[in-house]
Each structure stands twice: as C-alpha cells, then as structure tokens.
Amino acid sequence: MSAARVDGRKADQLRPVTLTRKWSIHPEGSVLVEFGQTKVLCTASVTEGVPRWLRGSGKGWVTAEYAMLPRATNTRGDRESVKGKVGGRTQEISRLIGRALRAVVDTKALGENTIIVDCDVLQADGGTRTAAITGAYVALQDAVTWMRDKKLIKASKDPLTGSVSAVSVGIIDGVPMLDLCYEEDVRAETDMNVVCTADGKFVEVQGTAEGAPFDRAELDALLDLAAGGCKELASHQVKALLS
Amino acid sequence: MSAARVDGRKADQLRPVTLTRKWSIHPEGSVLVEFGQTKVLCTASVTEGVPRWLRGSGKGWVTAEYAMLPRATNTRGDRESVKGKVGGRTQEISRLIGRALRAVVDTKALGENTIIVDCDVLQADGGTRTAAITGAYVALQDAVTWMRDKKLIKASKDPLTGSVSAVSVGIIDGVPMLDLCYEEDVRAETDMNVVCTADGKFVEVQGTAEGAPFDRAELDALLDLAAGGCKELASHQVKALLS
Amino acid sequence: MSAARVDGRKADQLRPVTLTRKWSIHPEGSVLVEFGQTKVLCTASVTEGVPRWLRGSGKGWVTAEYAMLPRATNTRGDRESVKGKVGGRTQEISRLIGRALRAVVDTKALGENTIIVDCDVLQADGGTRTAAITGAYVALQDAVTWMRDKKLIKASKDPLTGSVSAVSVGIIDGVPMLDLCYEEDVRAETDMNVVCTADGKFVEVQGTAEGAPFDRAELDALLDLAAGGCKELASHQVKALLS
Amino acid sequence: MSAARVDGRKADQLRPVTLTRKWSIHPEGSVLVEFGQTKVLCTASVTEGVPRWLRGSGKGWVTAEYAMLPRATNTRGDRESVKGKVGGRTQEISRLIGRALRAVVDTKALGENTIIVDCDVLQADGGTRTAAITGAYVALQDAVTWMRDKKLIKASKDPLTGSVSAVSVGIIDGVPMLDLCYEEDVRAETDMNVVCTADGKFVEVQGTAEGAPFDRAELDALLDLAAGGCKELASHQVKALLS
Amino acid sequence: MSAARVDGRKADQLRPVTLTRKWSIHPEGSVLVEFGQTKVLCTASVTEGVPRWLRGSGKGWVTAEYAMLPRATNTRGDRESVKGKVGGRTQEISRLIGRALRAVVDTKALGENTIIVDCDVLQADGGTRTAAITGAYVALQDAVTWMRDKKLIKASKDPLTGSVSAVSVGIIDGVPMLDLCYEEDVRAETDMNVVCTADGKFVEVQGTAEGAPFDRAELDALLDLAAGGCKELASHQVKALLS
Amino acid sequence: MSAARVDGRKADQLRPVTLTRKWSIHPEGSVLVEFGQTKVLCTASVTEGVPRWLRGSGKGWVTAEYAMLPRATNTRGDRESVKGKVGGRTQEISRLIGRALRAVVDTKALGENTIIVDCDVLQADGGTRTAAITGAYVALQDAVTWMRDKKLIKASKDPLTGSVSAVSVGIIDGVPMLDLCYEEDVRAETDMNVVCTADGKFVEVQGTAEGAPFDRAELDALLDLAAGGCKELASHQVKALLS
Questions:
Q1: Residues of A with Cβ-Cβ distance to B197 under 8 angstroms
Q2: Which of D26, D84, D124 sits opposite E123 (nearest CB)?
Q3: Contact assignment for D67 to E45 by CB distance below 8 Å
Q4: Cβ–Cβ of A79/F81 closer than 8 Å?
Q5: Confidence band for D3, pLDDT divided at 50, 70 and 90
Q6: Neighbours of chain C (3+ CB pairs under 8 A)
Q7: B88 touches chain A (CB under 8 A)
C-alpha cells in the first residue's frame, strides 16, 4: 500500500474533511461539507405532514434530493431543469442518500413530519455522493434538534437511532485506495461506495467493476478500507456536532 | 440454513430457471427468461452507428433499457410513457443492466455498431433485474452471432470476453437466502444483487440494509451464496446457448 | 377474389386466431391474443373508484391503454417513456379500444369501479389494434366474472351488454382482403378497421385511402368482408370463454 | 327525413358556409372557414426543405396541426402548451387533416418543400374538424399558387391532384342528419366524419357508435348524406377560389 | 419630432385602434383588439372558485394567458404545445398582463371567483403585449358586468378600481416614437412598454436598451410619449364600453 | 428620507457588498456576490462555438441562467428539475441577466465563442437578480481575461464595451429606498429593478406597482436613487477586479 497518490496521500488516508454547520440562515439544518476540493451544501428542511401513503400512520418521512450546479465540474453540464428531466445518475444518488439516512431514522419518533435534505454540489472533485451523505447526516441531526426545541417531537424520543457516513474506495493500478478524488476515480478499475453506521455496520455497499471484474480478495480489501474511512468520518461528525 | 421458504426451496436453491431463445421473430437476439414466476422478455437489437460521443472511435456500444408492463405486478402501476417520465428505479436498473453487459464486451471488436438490449418484465415475482441480466446476456450472445453471420464483425474477433449472470440474495429472519421471490423480498432485512462472470469474479455488488444494518459476517455469507447462484446460472446460460 | 396472398390464405380468410386466457397470474383478466404472428397481451385490471368526473354518479368506467414493446416490430422504435410523451398513433389506438369496449358496457351495472385494459403488443405483424380489441373483450369478460365472484357487482346485473371484436380489411391490387398482415398492410391502397358486435352491428368503422380514394362499391365490399371476419372472431371469443 | 332541427334546417341541409381567403397578411395561404357558428382559421405556411426521412427523395411534404383556443368552447379548456402535452383528440384530428390533404397532393410535384397547414379553432359549435379540412384545402391551394408565382414549383406540374372537403353526419332520434352543430352532436347516437374528393370518392370514413351500435342500412344512409354534403362543399370551395 | 415613419404617422401618433366587443359567442367577455395590423383576441372566462392559496380568503383572482398562433408572425413559429413547454417570452408577457389587470382589481369585491383572460395573437405587427393589455381590460370589464347580472357579485361593489391600457414607445434614429409597428420595433435602439391607469399613473414601466444604453433625458421623453398614448387608449376603451 | 429601515440603513444606503472572485476552481470566471445576506454564485463558462443561428457570422454569444437552490429561501421551494419545467420567474430573470450583460458585449470581438453565466442563488434575502447581474459582470470580465490569456480572442480587441451593475429600489410607506432586503421587498408599494452602465446610462428599467400605481414624481425619485446605487456598485466592481 505504498503507491503514490495524486495529492501525496497514503492509500488509506482521507482528504481533509470539513463540516461547517449553520452555513445558511434559512434551513433548520445546514452544513457545508468538504472532502478536499469537493464541496456540497446540505440543507435539511422540516415540514409538517407526510406524503400521501403515510397519512394517518403516525410515521414521519425523510427523503433527499441531490443535484450539481452546472459548473460544479470541469466542463459545464446542462441544467436538468432546462432539459426538463432529472437524469438517471441524479435520481440514483438522491435515492441512495435517502435510503442511507432512513437507515438511522425511527420514523415513528418523528411523528407525521417530513425532513427533506437537499445536497447541492457547489464544487465537484470526486466523492460527491459520499460527502453528501456524510454532511446530510449532520444537517439532519441539526434539524431534529430544531424540532425538539420547537416541541415538534417529544423530548423522550430520539428519531435518530445512530449515525451514517460514507466514503468511496477503489482499486488503482492494483492498489486499493480510500476516498478517491476525480482524477483517481477516472482511473479506478473498481469503484465502490460504502455507507456505514458509527458502530461499523454496513448500510449500503455498491461496488462496480469499471474495468476488469474484481475477485473476492479485492472486495475484502476494499471493504476493510471503507470501514476504516467511515469510522474516521464518524468522529469528524461527532466533533462537528459538539462544536 | 434450514428455514422453511415460501415455496419449499432450500436457502441456497434457485427457483426453476428457463431461458427460451428466439421467443420473438424480429429481434437479432430474443430470450424469454423465467426465474420461477418472474418472466422477462430480453431482446437485443443491432443498429449500425454509435452515439455521438463514440463516432470515429472505431468502438461500438452496448446499452440496456428495462421496463415493466403496467400489470406485471400485483397492483397496476401507471405507465411511465403516460406519466411522461422514466422513474428513478427504472433508470437505475437500466443503467445496472447496461454496465453489467459492458463488463464483458470488447467495444473495439464490435466496430461502430450499437446493440440495445430491451428487458421488458411481462410478469414480476421478485428478482426482475437479476433475471433480466441473466437473459440479456444470452440475447446479446445471439445478436453477436447474428452480426458475425452478417459479416458486421470480423470472424477473428470476439466482442464478448466472458459471460455475466446475476442473482439476488437476502437475509430473512436471520437466514441468508438465494434468489428471493417477491414475498421474501418484502420481508428481507438485507437485500443484495450480485452480478458475476462465469469464472466467479464480481462485476457489481449492490447491498442495501432494508431493516437493520448488516455486519461483515452477514455480508460474507451473502456473497458466498450469490457466487454459488451465479455459477449455476452461468451453466444454465451455456446449456441454453448450446441447445 | 382469387388473388394469391403472401401466406397462401384466401382473400376472405382470417389468420390462425388464438386466445389464451389466464396468461398472467396477477391481473383479474389476462389474455394473450394471436392473429398469426401478431401477439398482444391484454390484461384487465379492476380498481375501486372512478375518475373524478364520475364520482357520485353510481357509474363505473372502462378504459384502455395500448402500447408496443420497442422491438415488437422489425425495426426498434424508441420507448415513449424515454421520449417523454405518448405518440399520436398510440393515443389514437388507445382511445379506439376504449370506445369499442364501452360500446358493450353498461356502466351503471359496473358500479363505481374502473377497469383498465392494457394491450401491450409483444410482437407485431399487422392488425395489432384489431387483435387488441378482440383479446381485450375476453380479458374484460374475465375481469367482470372476477368482480361478480368477489361480490363487487350484483349477480343480477350484467355490465356487458354484448361482445365486440375487430378486424382489418384492405384493398390490394384491386382485391378486397381480410385481416392484413404487415406486408399486405404496407401495400394496401385502402385500409379499414371495423369493430362489430356479435350480432353483426357496427361499433366503429375507420377507413382510409392510403393510395387513391375509394368508391362506394369498394367500401361496400370491404364492409361485407369485415362483417364476416368479425362474426368468425366472435365465435373464437365464445369458444375461448367456454373453455 | 322531416325531423325538426335546432336551427330549423332540413336533415340534409348544411349550415351557412363561408370561406374568407386572405384573412391574414403573413401566411402564404389563409382562410377563415365558417360552418354556421364554427370558425376555424386555416393558414398554410411554405418552407423550403422536408423532414429528415424525405431528404434527397425529391418529394415534398404536407402536414397539419389542429388546435383550439382555450375559450373557443362553452367552457374554457386548459391550454395544451401549459399542460405540456398535446391531447389525444388534438393529435388524432391533426393526423386526420394531414392525411386528408395528402390524399390530393402529388409530393413529387411539390419538390423538396414543406407546407404546414395550421387549423386553429377560434369558435367551436360542432364540426370543427370537417370545417378545418374544408378550409385547409383552400388555404393549401392558395399556398401552391404562391409557390408557382415564386417559381418554387414548375408551372407544368400541379401538386394538387384534386380537392377534398369534409362533413359530419349523425343519427339523431333515428334520423340521419347532415353537418351537426354542437347541440346535435352531443345527442347523436352515431357520429360519422367523411372526407371526399370533388368527384365523390372517399378519402376517409370514420364512424363511431356513441350510443347503440348501428346497422348497415343506417351506415348506408349516412354515407349517402355525407357524399351529398361534400359535393356541395366542393362547389363552395370552387366559388371561393374563383372569387 | 418630425422623422418619417414607415406608415406616415407622426412620432406621437397611435396606429388606428379598434376594440370589437362580443367577438365570440361563448366567453363572458370577448374583445378583438386591433392596433393597426396587430390583432389580438382577448376573452375573459369566469369560473367559480379560486386557486388553492386563496381558498377561504374571501378574495377572487384575475390571471392572464398570452399566446401567439403559429403563423401570426411573418415566419411560422413552432407551437408551444408541441414543444411541450411554454417559452420564456410567453410566460413573461402572460405575467405582465396579469399584473397589469390586477392593479385595478379589488379582489375582495370579486368574491371567491376567478377570471382568466386569454390573449391570443391572431396577427402580429408589433405591440402585441400592449394591445393585449388594452383589450384585456375591456373584456374584463364585460366579464364583471356579466357577473353582476348573474348576481355573482354584489351590485354595491365594483371589483374594478380603475382602468388600464398599455403602449410601446421606442427611440429610432434618435427620435422617440409612439406605438411601434414590427418594422420599427426591430430598428429601435431602446424599447419600452408602459402600462398606465386612466388617471395617468404608472402600473408598469419596462424599458430595455436594445442597442446603446439610454440616458435620463431619453427615458423622460419616452415616458411622456407613453403617458400621452395611454391617455388616448383609455378614451378608446371608454368609447368601446359605452357603445 | 429619514424613515427607519429594518437593518438601520439610511434610505439611500446599500447593504454591505462583497465580490469574492475565484470562489470555484473549475469555471473560467467565478464570483460569489453578497448583498447583505443575499448570496449568489456567478460562474462564467467559456465554450467554443455559438448557437445555430449565429454560426458563420463571426459573432459570439453571451447568455445567462439564473436559479435558486431549493432552500435558499425561508420556505423550501420544489426543484424545477423535479417539476420538469423552468418557472416563469426564473426564465424572466435569466433573460434579464443575459440582456444586461449583452448590453456591454461586442459580440464581434468575442469571435465565435459562447460564454454562459450561471447565477445560482445560494441564499436569498431580496435583490437576488440585481446581485446576480452585479456579480455576473465581474465573472464575465474574468472569463474574457482568461480567453485573452488563452489567445481565444485577439489582444487588440475588447469584447466588453463597458460594465453593468444593478440594484433594486422601492417605495415603502411613501419613502423611496435603495437595495431592498426581503422584508422590505414584501412591503414595498412599488418595486423597481434598474440596470446601469458605469457611466450612468440605463440598460434596463423595470418598475412595477405592487400596490397603488405610482406617479411620475415617485418614478423620478426611484430612478435617482437607483442611479446612485449603481454608481456605487460599479466602484465595488472596479475594486474587486483590481484586487
């Protein structure tokens, strides 16, 4: 594990992580998360009521929407609003973030309220979906605290049963590496996004062979690397929430 | 691993698998794949030319589109054509099938030709995306053979570098099980779709905690089960292609 | 009337007709109808309630949606879901099937229930709309029987006041012919689709001059031919429903 | 045939017909057609070039688009532009008008030019599609004359091989009637739209049982009535074009 | 102010203005407004009820929709219904007309009723939005009178607190001119649309430098000219309403 | 002019203005502009080539797209990408920004290149469109400098013929005020957005009576106030570009 990385990191090293809470004045929770040059603004919006299929169930709902500013990337992408539809990649990531957050939400404890977490990528350099999940959890936590302050949920109940963070891993030139930046992501033979809880369990594992298929040993190495990365991210989240 | 299953299968047992080639008269490749009650019609259509971004590259393209008939399921779903947009789940699965197929395609050997594999679910009972991938590979193989017969590709080159099949696995009441039917899928705490090559390597691993997060031991058990199931499916594919 | 046809049929001869009931496990009525190589899956779905404009009227509603799988035809057509809109031809045929079915439905006897009949063309070789109507009626009948079994409608009332079937006719090289296959349809100077009740009355007559305008004598010959074809189709429907 | 009509007409009598040419200053052909209170503005626009599938064929193209102003009817209808899609009825009628016009067009003689005929209903009182066809033909003729003046087509060739007009017929209280106004249209058991050439041949026959199915004798009576009405409309067209 | 104009008018002279009330039979108010060759059909439709955000408020709503027939202009424009979306210019003008009308509406006096004013440009020669506003006011007045006759609003209340009219002004070759026709509009360096009440106050001022930016003196001259034009239009409105 | 303002400002005082250049790493020009709590990210993207209607003209193109993040405002707004269409307000503002920038662009000097300026509102507190224009100009200037460095434009030509900035003004409780924050904007009887060049000329004047119509004296006072504000903003732009 001693291959040189673009930015001089070690194979199992995260990029500098920053979680800036209260970045915006309006949302109930708002976090600017940075994984190196990747910057995602995560805002959590609380509204009373739930989607139709949950009405009367006593349960709340948490969902997420992911998007990129048109020039968050090196080349400008057309706006999905102008194209008139949300692309497949965008929908896939929005669904992933929503599932990841709901894995640690007790919807009964939320009551019939909805929290929408918007993750807007202001600048992209690889790992936007994993940064988004990591920041979204913190924004969600702040929104839940706001709800408790407003007596929208009972003090005795905690709608959050744990925390989630996420990281990408990949194999480059045969070496498993943690938290790929864009340049690495493009070169990776295998690319995996892993969502973990703070206690090291898996919420989502999505591995794709971009080049040659990967074997079980490679898969195992990637899972080890990701588990370690998520653990570190979880401590960043704790630190941010305590500050 | 002795828990009773809805249909009396053992935990590591596939449902009856059928691969009916030449189901339709028009397409270059067409396969009706059945995993138990799940029936997917996979048709492979060859067209000359490639999408814009590949023109002049000498490379071909393989892509897939997945869809469900409105009453393939127990409750009728609205048509996506009538709603005017393709849903997130549909796009996600279409992208997955396309990636899985491209993992075994040498696009250079295809020349500047495109193969679109349509996977239309005629009847759904769980595992539609994994059945689709398994059937799509066979339809793709038939389309490639058709191209060779028509001299659209050189006899000396094989655009297919291997085969892919896919299967779902999940944990139900703590027991890892292979090839979930719909009733099982709904009850699964963890749900994973795995795409493998015939030589046992991984092309895609997508695991999601539907209920509680899963630990590494559970993940390992699911991967073992899936690898075994894909091996068996690969032999079904070989048998179908030789018949 | 002795002109040779592509498939050796006589001018007034239908292609082989098959009506396979209970083709799918989920729908309340499901029929695979085949007119030669044309295969249409007709499924009838019962839901409680009616569209807004009928609420409180005590009347039910029957409607239809027609679509083609992308590779049902010789050349692959783009999916309407991907294009984001339903084409004019598709809408026109959906509306035709719905009107044809409603011609034999007593909506009062249905109660405030809706039956949607989906007609999905799995393989096309001319006459898809007429095959669809012929199969849709049988699926509708099965759905009505299911409703009676479930006590959703009163035993004393029959929501179906008759039966409908449909057939295409056309003039090729000056000869009126029944039930055109695709190759004939393309060559026809005049093309007509006729929907009849079992007692020989007309529900819909749609004739179009594809080449030269047609005179009254030709129109009369086509109507005679169509009436005969529908009569024969009606007996196929009876036989299928009795089996 | 002596039943009283809403407006005192005889059963086989057209409403007052007006064809005002050059109603607008911009289009190459423009006609305000009135069938009683029904008013449709038909404009024919000539553009060089043809749709992609005709390029290089040496043939031209004629197509039509039909639409209603939102308050052309008694109750305001939502704009299709605002709804974001063209309704089924609108598409069906646009396609009908296009087919009717093309039945008398020699596309070779047009050269690679396109004529789009827009039929916008300014006020509706039944028979909008038949008025549209009748007016569209006159606008088309004016556009063709304009093209000849501009030397866009050769003087020796006539792209119009005949004329078309259209009329609705229906059975009300058992009596076949010509050219239904809205109030009659709503009450009709059977409704038929017929497009004829000036020499009395049929271009399109579309009959629908709105109530009870109709028998052959009724169909024959309607066809007779329509043929007579179209003949009269053809003479209105000639008169307008000569004026 | 003596520069020659295309049509011989003086710089501060309106084109001939016509306001034809009751142009259509169906709408509660309908006016064909003509500013020279510009013809806009304005229809006011009354419906009971209000948009969701006003329910229970006791207030009514007035809104407007502007559109152009495809061949209202010199070159045919694609239909927005066919394109599937309403263009920016169309929306901008619809919003402008709605705001202009609401400036003289007392929504309380309307009660929970909605008036939609449709402004459809039948023929365009510059100034379509200002003609639309000028005609829309008259149609609105007629619809309000209709409501009073139908007792939908109390006789003691007048929902209209004043009148509005609008005119375009522009600078051509350095000379400020009133009510530009299309040919002038294209050449104008600065283009301004002004909406005034009958008592000479401003409701909307929208000035744009098409060529060089304009200075305060030019702006002042344009405002003077527009105020004079609106005053004259207001007297046309009064005359039309009294006739 | 001594009325108390929400934030203690004087009636003719701007909020604190910040223009942070190079806020993002990818775009050719990027500026975070802040007018008090309003924050807009303006990025200028250079691409070779021009829209179809300009090809071969030797001229370039500058256009703008404005959008708001869903929770930029106090209440979350639905994403336009999810709704499938761009709203009227968004389009209106995008068009305004584009026109404002083009007023100081010599498209000939740009060559056949396109600059798209995206203005994404990260946080809204009134005046988002005027802040966007003010920041967009600076981003545009940086993009032009980048083009010169890359030799995409000749050193001898300056595509920018001046600078533009914009500010809102309004009348609150009878007092004309500069640069309204959201709370003031809601209360304003009259609201005007003014775009000026650095030499004090007008590029765009858009005034709307939200409450009572305004008279000429009020309009004059607002124009004076806006001209002063723009002058100050122009000096902020110069300072930012020199830093």
A1: 213
A2: D26
A3: no
A4: yes
A5: low
A6: B, D
A7: yes
Our measurement of the distance from residue B154's CA atom to the centroid of its chain's CA atoms, rounded to an integer in Å, reads 27
Residues of C (214-233) whose Cβ lies below 8 Å from D: 214-216, 219, 223, 227
Q: What are phi and psi of D136, to 5 degrees?
A: -60, -40
DSSP class per residue in chain A:
-----TTS--TT-PPPEEEEET-SSSSSEEEEEEETTEEEEEEEEEEES--GGGTTSS--EEEEEEEE-TTSSSSPPPPHHHHTS--HHHHHHHHHHHHHHHTTB-HHHH-SEEEEEEEEEEE-SS-HHHHHHHHHHHHHHHHHHHHHHTTSS-TT--SB-S-EEEEEEEEETTEEEES--HHHHHH-SEEEEEEEETTS-EEEEEEEESSS-B-HHHHHHHHHHHHHHHHHHHHHHHHHHH-
- Chains adjacent to D (≥3 CB pairs closer than 8 angstroms): C, E
With 0-12 / 13-18 / 19 or more C-beta atoms within 10 angstroms meaning exposed / middle / buried, residue B94 is: buried
How far apart CA B58 and CA B42 sit, in angstroms, is 27
Q: Which amino acid, one-letter code, is at B181?
A: C
Interface size between B and C, measured as CB pairs under 8 A: 93
pLDDT value at residue B1: 43
Q: Do D24 and E81 touch (CB under 8 A)?
A: no
A154 touches B at CB < 8 Å: no
Q: Which is nearest to B89 in space by CA: B236, B206, B237, B1? A: B206
Q: How close are the terminal C-alpha atoms of chain E, in Å?
A: 34
Question: What Å distances lie between residue B39 and B92, C59, F113, CA to CA?
Answer: 19, 36, 52
Hey, how many other C-beta atoms are within 10 angstroms of the C-beta on A4?
Answer: 11
Distance from CA of A185 to the nearest CA of F (A): 17
What residues have CB less than 8 Å from E17, skipping those under 6 apart? E33, E34, E35, E134, E233, E236
Q: Which residues in chain D have Cβ-Cβ distances shorter than 8 Å to E43?
A: 69-71
d(Cα B44, Cα B166) in Å, to the nearest integer? 18
Nearest Cα residue in chain D from E76? D45
Nearest to C69 among B47, B72, B120 (CB): B120
Tell me: the pLDDT tens digits for F38-93? Answer: 999 999 999 999 999 999 999 999 999 999 999 999 999 999 999 988 999 999 99
Instruction: Looking at the complex, report in whole angstroms how far the Cα of residue A125 sits from the nearest Cα belonging to chain F.
Output: 10
Parallel/antiparallel/unpaired status of strands E113-123 and E61-68:
parallel
> F137 in contact with E at a CB cutoff of 8 Å?
no
Question: DSSP assignment, residue C238?
Answer: H
Q: With an 8 Å Cβ cutoff, is E196 touching chain F?
A: yes
Model ipTM value: 0.95
With an 8 Å Cβ cutoff, are A81 and F73 in contact? no
pLDDT of residue E211: 81
Structure tokens at D33: 């057609």
Please give the sequence-ordered ranges of beta strands (E in DSSP) within E69-180, or none if there are none: 113-123, 164-172, 175-178
CB distance B33 to B42 below 8 Å: yes
Separation of alpha carbons E216 and F154, rounded Å: 35
Instruction: Determine the Cα angle at F170 with ends E227 and F104, to 5°.
Output: 75
Is the distance from CB of D119 to CB of D136 less than 8 angstroms?
A: yes
Residues D170 and D180: beta-carbon distance below 8 Å: yes
Q: Of all helices (H) and strands (E), which one includes residue E65?
A: strand E61-68
Tell me the C-alpha distance between B75 and C26, whole Å. 8
Alpha-carbon span F219 to F225, nearest angstrom: 10
In this structure, what DSSP letter does residue B105 have? B
Asked if residue C21 belongs to a known ligand binding site, the reply is no
Strand, helix or coil for residue E59: coil
Residues of B with Cβ-Cβ distance to C81 under 8 angstroms: 67, 79-81, 83, 85-86, 90
Alpha-carbon distance F167 to F190, whole Å?
14
Integer Cα distance of C183 and C170 in angstroms: 12
pLDDT tens-digit series, residues D34-77: 999 999 999 999 999 999 999 999 999 999 999 999 999 999 99
